[in-house]
Amino acid sequence: MLDALQERFDGILRSLKGQAKISESNIEDATREIRRALLEADVGVQVARDFVVRVAEQARGAEVLKGVLPGQQFVKIVHDELTALLGGENQPIQFARGEPTLLMMVGLQGSGKTTSAAKLAHLLKRKMGRRPFLIAADIYRPAAVDQLVVLGRQLGVPVFQPVDNDALKTARAGVAEARRGNFDTIILDTAGRLHIDEVMMQELARIRAELNPHEILFVADAMIGQDAVKAAREFNERLAFHGVILTKLDGDTRGGAAMSIRAVTGKPLKFIGTGEKLEALEPFHPDRLAQRILGMGDVVGLVEKVQEQVERQDAEKMAARMARAEFDLEDFLSQLQMIKRLGPLEGLLKMIPGVGSKLKDMDLDSGQLTRTEAIIQSMTSAERRQPALINGSRKARIARGSGVKENDVGLLLHQYDQMKGMMKQLGGMGMFGAPGGRRGSGPDNDRPQPVLNPVSAGFSVKRAQKKAGKKKR
């Protein structure tokens, strides 16, 4: 996601961080490179020009904070302006009080409206405790209704189907049905076209005039860059939508649409699509995306991903086992499966501050987790609980069952032995915490806490080994 833009900004800001002072000359050089990077990322010319003007003005008028290098101050200015360009802060859906909230999805054909409607229903149901109801009012695209029905069935969300092949009648009847069923959120999927035309806009305008939706969400395809921005501008002029869902951002290496839509329309990005799965729709946080573009990672986003996959009870149980050095291959397998659920390993590592810029020099084998999982699953339950049972003949059997070499099985067992020893060392240092102990205060107090896993272990273990080495000496 936005790889090209991240790489360019990393190079620009790295050259500035060591500067003893910020002068007119290096401000001019940096803003020139930033403008070039934005244009290469398919950001609109006027948007890029306005952005670098604001950055230059802020840099010239900024007072360097005590204890902060001038170059670091410049990075902060770029971060703050980038956050402002992307919208400043998260803009959630404004739910109606005392009646169902009606959300109307609009956009061009192929932008991902139908899939986004289902993803939004999933997010509202799973994370917000809402009772969504889907209306299939796209009466023109072949199989659009069937697609939404199938997705709704997967989610356990009802889908209202077309009436008399009429979009307005369908929307009207669907809203009435949702009200009778006491659903609190109605998502209306409308038809798109391959291009904007008058018939399409008139149909959407009639639906809006009669049903008065609480929010109209424009669905844009990030992959088409400035064409998405142009379509957003025209839809906004005719419908005055409330926010944007930007799809396929995981495949957008440039970022032009994400960087331009807010500036051009004045309407916030509310959600971003980050994959094909129904879970791959996220509330948009401008500051988090700005941090990732600038190579600062996204620790909050990473923790939230882990919290979604780890139940509190399981986390406490795992922490206790690790503290007692009872970590076996069953635990190792459950940790691997949790990591796989979080998404591609490269994407997770990019969320760790300072790691993203180094990934281009690393050879990440995305299939390693799958091979490791296959090896462990080829073991018996007794072998997973007591790896010491695995002798030469058992290794051969496990290798045949998982389609790997015996050396691969031996390497996994060696790595497991090392990790178990490190777990014991870490537990002795109190790095796992006491299960059921104090968690602090605030709204997230009862949320499950992430446990150490094979990805994060490597980072903590190195520090623990250094501490242990110093104690021995």
What would you say about this model in short?
By secondary structure, this protein is α/β, with parallel strands linked by helices. It is 56% helix and 8% strand. It has three domains: 3-86, Four Helix Bundle (Hemerythrin (Met), subunit A); 101-296, Rossmann fold; 302-472, Signal recognition particle, SRP54 subunit, M-domain (434 Repressor (Amino-terminal Domain), Orthogonal Bundle), CATH 1.10.260.30.
What does this structure look like?
By secondary structure, the chain is of the alpha/beta class. The protein has three domains: 3-86, Up-down Bundle (Four Helix Bundle (Hemerythrin (Met), subunit A)); 101-296, Rossmann fold (3-Layer(aba) Sandwich); 302-472, 434 Repressor (Amino-terminal Domain) (Orthogonal Bundle), CATH 1.10.260. It is 56% helix and 8% strand. The chain is built from 20 helices and eight strands. Strands 3-2-4-1-5-6-7-8 form an eight-stranded mixed β-sheet, with helices on both faces. Strand 6 (243-247), helix 10 and strand 7 form a beta-alpha-beta unit.
Helix/strand layout:
Elements lengths: L2 H15 L6 H17 L4 H17 L8 H17 L14 E6 L6 H15 L4 E5 L7 H12 L3 E2 L6 H14 L4 E5 L8 H14 L3 E7 L4 H14 L3 E5 L8 H10 L3 E5 L7 E3 L2 H8 L5 H11 L2 H12 L5 H14 L2 H6 L17 H10 L3 H5 L6 H11 L3 H23 L25 H19 L1
Parallel strand pairs: 1-4, 1-5, 2-3, 2-4, 5-6, 6-7
Antiparallel strand pairs: 7-8
Helix pairs in contact: 1-2, 2-3, 3-4, 4-11, 5-6, 7-8, 9-10, 14-16, 16-18, 18-19, 19-20
